[in-house]
Amino acid sequence: MGPVQIRDETADDRDAIREVNRRAFGGEQEARLVDRLRDDGLVVASLVAVAGERVVGHILFSELPIDADTRPIPATALAPMAVLPEWQGRGIGSALVRRGLGVCRERGTMAVLVLGHAAFYARFGFSAHLARSLRAPYSGNAFMAVELAPGALGDGTGTVRYPEAFHQVD
């Protein structure tokens, strides 16, 4: 199946990105979320994993401001991340997350939030404890944060402002 390369998405990748998300999640919701965040101009990073000429994985990071008590915090949401079922278990998701966090750091993001599997995301430094004090529509061990700049979340209090796209993808 050959080596996999991670790169920024191009306009020519969009149909393949929709297909990856449809197949990985078994529905349309995540594909519509990606399109809506892109259409709303909120994408910080959209990366694809490519094997040969085929897109086999995708990850999206979008603007997710946090209104902290003392200052706004430039943060992003990691959502969604998808790999074609037949390509899962090969480290592609991990490679997408690692590269995506690096790109976000380069582009000035101070923190990233995710709603996902704690055991998977913890290996990249995500922590439910770090996100616990944030006011958001999500809570629990699946709601996690990672700081890309040390101390970015300060004391961890603030309100997460999820864009409308996250509420209108049903």
Overall number of structural domains: 1
Derived structural class: alpha+beta
Reported CATH architecture: 3-Layer(aba) Sandwich
Strand-residue fraction? Answer: 25-35%
CATH homology superfamily = Gcn5-related N-acetyltransferase (GNAT)
Reported by name, the CATH topology is Aminopeptidase
Helix-strand pattern: EHHEEEEEHEHHEEE
- List the total number of helices: 5
- What helical percentage do the residues reach? 25-40%
* Silhouette: globular
Mean pLDDT: 94
Q: Provide the CATH top-level class.
A: Alpha Beta
Structure characterization notes:
The protein is built from five helices and ten strands. It is globular. The strands form two sheets. The chain has a six-stranded mixed sheet, sandwiched between helices. Strands 5-4-10-8 form a four-stranded mixed sheet, with no helix packed on it. It is an alpha+beta fold. It has one domain: 3-Layer(aba) Sandwich (Aminopeptidase), CATH 3.40.630. A hairpin with a 2-residue loop joins β2 and β3.
Brief summary:
The protein has 170 residues and is α+β, with helices and mostly antiparallel strands.
Secondary-structure topology with pairs:
Elements: E1 4-8, H1 14-25, H2 29-39, E2 43-51, E3 54-63, E4 66-68, E5 72-73, E6 75-83, H3 92-106, E7 111-115, H4 118-121, H5 128-131, E8 134-135, E9 143-147, E10 158-160
Parallel strand pairs: 6-7, 8-10
Antiparallel strand pairs: 1-2, 2-3, 3-6, 4-5, 4-10, 7-9
Helix pairs in contact: 1-2
